[in-house]
Structures are given as structure tokens and as C-alpha cells.
């Protein structure tokens, strides 16, 4: 049993849970200006009111787990992406404050709505660009970051950022299809179709860019025997994307959202296949960056206790607020 591999999958799970759960409420923030002032925006925001802050638990688990289980990776990735991390955190702060204050300060609701949208967009864009900065490779010397302040800013990272924004918008729109009815649901379907097309095109563009970005990435996807293991990922992704668009068009309620999650799952599986076993491409593997074995065992005990509790209360919250949203909230 390789504890380092176990910890890599724990952190990957936490990141995936964060992307999916906080992704759809960030997506609603991105789409917020398209809803009518008043009832339309209130219903969209009410759909995430009971769960949005709990969704960010997974960001803490993912970031804290990276620092504890892979301290070298944490020490390299953060200095390489400080501007992006700061922008993401500021975006989340403005978004959270706007979420609360738009109800308590109706005289300035237009300002808080703009802060909610701006914070959501900035956070999503920063997360995507951070992923892009990691995939394009980080310069390391003597186990420390050796690049410049702006190495993260490239056309590739911008493409990854836009892909993340589109993907979050897709999650947000499909969530609203599930949770709204009437005119709000019709509008959400229109948004979901546009976001689905944008997400699929940008996922394809990032995937093709990866092949030219790094020779090792190209070998992993295009040469035998690796190609036989990699081929199911784009095939299944294509099938899921087609099914999702059909579900949006055929007036399904929850199915588009679950298929959007599946699309993200296979996108993340593709990223994992591309990067493995590096945690900081192109030179630091998960074993190079891992904490001592005793530390991993100690932390694994804590995770074994806390993660089921987090999953349990999260599932309970979603079960309690499982209905549609009207003008007064959930029913």
C-alpha cells in the first residue's frame, strides 16, 4: 500500500468535489447579469443560498491537504502562482460579502450584484489559469521556484481560464434547470446550451494545445501502449457531451446537471493521465514532494474521521433542500 498514491487520490477527490460543488454556484454568479433584476436574480441566488458556503469546505481540504501531504509541491506552486491565488481569494471574498449584503443593503443592490458577478468571474478565471500554469510546467531549481513573477501569464493559461469560466457557467446553468421552473428554467436551458458548446470547444482546444505543449504529454496520448489506456477518455467524454446536449434540449430536469458533472469527471481524468506521476511538471513527482511516512499516516487517520463527516453533512444539506425554488425559497 503506497500512502503517497493514496494521498494523491484524496487530494484529487477534494479538488474534484470543490470544482463541481463550488463550480455551479460560481457559475450562477457568472451568469447572474443575464437574469432579470428582481425576481429572476433572487430565485437564482436562493437556489444556492443553503449550500454555497459549505461547498468551499473542499477548497480548504484540497489546499490544506496539499500543504500537509506534499509540502514541496505546495512550496513551489504557491510562489509560481501568487498573483492568481491572491486574485482567487479576493474574488471569493467579494463574492461572499456581496451574497450577504445584497439582501441587507437593498439601496446598493446593483453594486452588490456586480460584486457577486465580478468575484465569481475572477475566482473562476484564476482557478483555470492556475491549472494552466501547473500544466505548462513550473521552473524549479534547488527545490524552489526559479521562475519570474509573471511566468503564469501565457496564451495557454488564458485558454484554460476561459475554459474554466465556461465550464462553471455550464454547471450553474444546469443546476438552475434542475432547481427552477417556468421562465427561469427556460432561460437556464438557453444558457446551458450556449455554455455547453463553449465548454466542449474550449476543452477540445486545451486538449489539442496539451499535445503541442509538452513532448511527454504528446507521447502519452499518441503512442502505444499508453494510447490504448487513454483512448476511452475522449470517447466517453464525447458521448457524455452529446447526451448532455440532448438532455438539455429534451426538457430534462436533473439529468443535464449530472451529465455536466460526468463531463468534468472525465476532463479531470484526462488531466490526471496527462500529468501522472508529476505533481509539479516537468520535474517533481508525487514521491519527490511527499511528506514523511509517519506524517502521512497521522494525517490519514484524521481524514478517515473527518471526510465521512463532511460528506455526510453535505449530503444531508442537499437532501433537505432538494426541491424547486420559488419566490420564498425552497419548497
Q: Categorize the overall geometry.
A: globular
Count structural domains.
1
How do the strands of the widest beta sheet line up side by side?
Answer: 1-2
Describe the largest sheet: 2 strands, antiparallel
Helicity level: over 70%
Tally of strands: 6
Radius of gyration over all CA atoms, rounded: 20 Å
SSE ordering: HHHHHHHEEHHHHHHEEHHEE
Oligomer: single chain
What is the mean pLDDT? 88
What ranges have pLDDT less than 50 throughout 5 or more consecutive residues?
A: none
- How much of the sequence is in beta strands? under 5%
Q: Tell me the structural class.
A: mainly alpha
Q: In brief, what are we looking at here?
A:
The protein is mainly alpha-helical and 331 residues long.
Q: Can you characterise this structure?
A:
The protein has 331 residues and is mainly α. The protein has one domain. Helix content is 77%, strand content 4%. The chain has a two-stranded antiparallel ribbon with strand order 1-2. A two-stranded antiparallel sheet has the order 3-4. Strands 5-6 form a two-stranded antiparallel sheet. Helix 1 (3-31) runs antiparallel to helix 7 and helix 9 (182-213) runs antiparallel to helix 12. The protein is globular.
Tags for this model:
mainly alpha; two-stranded antiparallel ribbon; 15 helices; 6 strands
Topology at a glance:
Elements: H1 3-31, H2 39-46, H3 52-55, H4 57-69, H5 71-80, H6 82-104, H7 109-136, E1 140-141, E2 144-145, H8 155-179, H9 182-213, H10 215-222, H11 226-230, H12 232-249, H13 255-275, E3 278-280, E4 284-285, H14 286-289, H15 293-320, E5 325-326, E6 329-330
Helix pairs in contact: 1-4, 1-7, 1-8, 4-5, 6-7, 7-8, 8-9, 8-13, 9-10, 9-12, 12-13
Amino acid at each position: 500500500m503506497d500512502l503517497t498514491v493514496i494521498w494523491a487520490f484524496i487530494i484529487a477527490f477534494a479538488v474534484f468535489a470543490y470544482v463541481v460543488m463550488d463550480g455551479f454556484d460560481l457559475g450562477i454568479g457568472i451568469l447572474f447579469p443575464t437574469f432579470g433584476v428582481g425576481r429572476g436574480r433572487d430565485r437564482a441566488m436562493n437556489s444556492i443560498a443553503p449550500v454555497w458556503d459549505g461547498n468551499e469546505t473542499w477548497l480548504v481540504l484540497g489546499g490544506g491537504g496539499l500543504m500537509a501531504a506534499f509540502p514541496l509541491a505546495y512550496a513551489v506552486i504557491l510562489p509560481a502562482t501568487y498573483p492568481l491565488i491572491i486574485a482567487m481569494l479576493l474574488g471569493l471574498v467579494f463574492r461572499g460579502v456581496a451574497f450577504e449584503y445584497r439582501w441587507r443593503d437593498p439601496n446598493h443592490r446593483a453594486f452588490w450584484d456586480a460584486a457577486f458577478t465580478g468575484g465569481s468571474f475572477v475566482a473562476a478565471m484564476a482557478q483555470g489559469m492556475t491549472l494552466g500554469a501547473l500544466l505548462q510546467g513550473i521552473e524549479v531549481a534547488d527545490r524552489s521556484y526559479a521562475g519570474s513573477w509573471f511566468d503564469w501569464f501565457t496564451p495557454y493559461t488564458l485558454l484554460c481560464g476561459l475554459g474554466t469560466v465556461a465550464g462553471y457557467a455550464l454547471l450553474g446553468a444546469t443546476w438552475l434547470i434542475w432547481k427552477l421552473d417556468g421562465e427561469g428554467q427556460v432561460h437556464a436551458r438557453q444558457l446551458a446550451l450556449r455554455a455547453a458548446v463553449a465548454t466542449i470547444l474550449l476543452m477540445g482546444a486545451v486538449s489539442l494545445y496539451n499535445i503541442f505543449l509538452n513532448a511527454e504529454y504528446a507521447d502519452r496520448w499518441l503512442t502505444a501502449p499508453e494510447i490504448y489506456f487513454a483512448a476511452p477518455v475522449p470517447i466517453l467524454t464525447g458521448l457524455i457531451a452529446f447526451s448532455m446536449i440532448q438532455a438539455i434540449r429534451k426538457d430534462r430536469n436533473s439529468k443535464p446537471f449530472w451529465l455536466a458533472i460526468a463531463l468534468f469527471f472525465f476532463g479531470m481524468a484526462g488531466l490526471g493521465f496527462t500529468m501522472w506521476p508529476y505533481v509539479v511538471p516537468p520535474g517533481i513527482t508525487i514521491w519527490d514532494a511527499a511528506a514523511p511516512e509517519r506524517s502521512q499516516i497521522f494525517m490519514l487517520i484524521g481524514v478517515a474521521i473527518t471526510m465521512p463527516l463532511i460528506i455526510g453533512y453535505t449530503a444531508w444539506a442537499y437532501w433537505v433542500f432538494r426541491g424547486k425554488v420559488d419566490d420564498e425559497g425552497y419548497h
